[in-house]
Amino acid sequence: MPEPRIAVVGATGAVGEELLAVLAARGHARGTIAAVASANSAGRTVRCADRELPLVAADAFAFNRGDVVFLGVDAAAAMPLAQRAVAAGARVVDNSSAFRGDAAVPLVIPEVNPEALNTDPPPRLLANPNCSTIMLLVALEPLRKAFGIEHVHVATYQAVSGAGRAAMDELRDQTAAVLKGQPAEPRAFPLPCAFNVFPHESAIDPATLANGEERKIVAEARRIWRAPDLPIDCACTRVPTLRAHCQAVTVTLAGVVSLDDVRSALANAPGLLPAAAHTLAATGRDEVLVDRVRWATSELDRPEAGRRRLSLWLAADQLRKGAALNAVQLAEACKWLPARAGST
Amino acid sequence: MPEPRIAVVGATGAVGEELLAVLAARGHARGTIAAVASANSAGRTVRCADRELPLVAADAFAFNRGDVVFLGVDAAAAMPLAQRAVAAGARVVDNSSAFRGDAAVPLVIPEVNPEALNTDPPPRLLANPNCSTIMLLVALEPLRKAFGIEHVHVATYQAVSGAGRAAMDELRDQTAAVLKGQPAEPRAFPLPCAFNVFPHESAIDPATLANGEERKIVAEARRIWRAPDLPIDCACTRVPTLRAHCQAVTVTLAGVVSLDDVRSALANAPGLLPAAAHTLAATGRDEVLVDRVRWATSELDRPEAGRRRLSLWLAADQLRKGAALNAVQLAEACKWLPARAGST
To answer: What pLDDT band is residue A341 in, cutting at 50, 70 and 90?
Structure first.
């Protein structure tokens, strides 16, 4: 059977570029790959493995039956593109938030809820969760399975690349300007990002005062875990790093365990690597790095047998496992693409 | 009465330089100021207001009765210097951690526990709390007073200047190198700091796995609040910013209140400014900035009247309120220096 045609939509963006790299690294770049972008990119090319792919304008691109389509564009653009692709008989993984709240569209992290892919009829459209949700749940799933989870608290340290390639350029350019004593002029963010930490720029909901990223984590984690009442505290923040997010996580376990039990559960979990975790260590890696597995400091006064609140420190490449890799894994899990061991 | 002689020890360091700036800004730089540093700085000068102060070697410096001494050196150096100064009849504010656990030495934030200065006999040696403790408690004290606090959770986003001037130089130099495609060579930190986020570099306690910064926050907050059992969860992290720390704080109040009540309490608190809080906004300011006052996302399912867990976002200049300003305020509160309205 020939390999299906793959279309990467948003191929010039940060997620699109990473999709092409992950497809190549996992051996999916031997067949036809269409690199689709906005009309003003037409005529240019993008690189995928050892090939230069001509960019095709999304408006002019004809989706075909059987295509495997990865959408790496924002929610407003993804909505009509996904509908066009599905109507043409293509199979679609959308990286945006457009369909994450749609009960008819599976929202899946392969290491966490692969069973959600087993719909009847099989799904044609999948939603890739938010990058912060993915890394958090990959790390917590082994604890949830083994011990149960009663409460999650997460403070994020998010790289600018979550806001796209322009944001990465802005951090580099602004930082260079500031080092020369020149002013930092924000464009991608509402505030200067060079040498600055500020609340995540997504829209604040006036009813809850939570920003968009915080609302995504809560809603998506509850949906993926089928735990609609799970208490989750979130504070989402941008830090001046290029790619890979970090998270300070405090999780209250339902069952009383030992740190050794916790470490064993984490050591054998798919997609997770106990290791020194920091932005640069996670950059370019497939795994979510988990570090500083310890009792929360508030538990230290309690006898060890009564402790239930854990503290963890995570780092993961949000363009890779947080976006492109998870999307490609979903296509593999659905057998839209052949299952292949990753090599990065 | 003539103004006392002031000695700033560690005058070439990041805290020492800020002490000289704060002393000048608060009108304390008109009398004699001795700028004291290590022997290898002797012969050089440092600036204070419009004067160039010659640097004196600490080993050769004679403390006098009545001197007001600010120590801006590390704990190992502070211990013998403080003892020498107190023995000579000087009055000392130490910025290091050397005396913070010593019950005989007041550990004070003027906005939080000024009554701890009223010892009999009056204190000759004061301990300045850790920068992260100061900003956290300045922000939470009005809530503790008005409503009571049952649990504190804080994740920090700490600027490199907490590790001193060399760390600030390292962040600038490393960032410039990385932008040119050159390798980042860590010296002040165990890991590269340019475009990187990593756990706070202070020593990990093998019994608790908490790092030094986390242990300081817990121990100091409990001591200052005289709340030895208060549960406090901490995760302390370095981010690639030059100065001003941020904190994501979740606090469980003892009493049920409304967000309006919370905002009123915060609006009228000394040293605190409700404002857009980010690293650059706090840099060079006296106040702790408090922002994003909201219910924790885990509380949003509860009816409003039953909510008790709050989320706050803080930013403060840790060299100023987190070190130099708090130290000078302590000397003013003890009337070692005349009380003067700050002007920055």
So the answer is: low
The answer for A 216-275 residues in CB contact with B (under 8 A) is: 218, 229, 231-235, 237, 239-242, 246, 248, 250
Task: Tell whether the model's pLDDT for residue B304 goes beyond 90.
Answer: no
From the centroid of its chain, how far is CA B323? 4
pLDDT tens-digit map of B311-341? 999 999 999 999 999 999 999 999 999 987 5
Between chain A and chain B, the number of residue pairs with CB atoms below 8 A apart is 156
**Which residues, listed in sequence order, are joined to residue B253 by a DSSP beta bridge?**
B149
Strands of B149-157's sheet in order across: B232-235, B149-157, B245-253, B309-316, B288-295, B272-274
Tokens coding A211: 């920003």
List the structure tokens of A261: 């039990």
A309 lies within 8 A of chain B by CB: yes
Nearest to A245 by CA among A143, A130, A146, A105: A130
Residue A344 confidence (pLDDT): 37
Evaluate whether A202 touches A184 at the Cβ level (below 8 Å).
no
Residues 208-227 of B with CB under 8 A from A: 208-210, 214-215, 218
Closest chain A residue by Cα to residue B312: A235
Question: In chain B, what are the domains?
Answer: 6-129+323-333 (3.40.50.720), 133-318 (3.30.360.10)
The residue whose two tokens read 């409700």 is B274
Phi, psi of B59 (to 5 degrees): -60, -35
Terminal C-alpha separation, chain A: 26
**Residue indicated by tokens 């008109």:** B30
pTM of the predicted protein model: 0.96
Query: Which residues of B does the annotation mark as catalytic?
Result: 131, 245
A186 strand-pairing partners: none
Q: In chain A, what residues touch B315 (CB-CB under 8 Å)?
A: 197
pLDDT digits (tens, 9 = 90+) for A128-161: 999 999 999 999 999 999 999 999 999 999 999 9
Which one-letter amino acid corresponds to residue A240?
A: P
A48 is catalytic: no
ipTM of the assembly? Answer: 0.96
- Rounded to whole angstroms, the Cα distance separating B180 from B183 reads 9
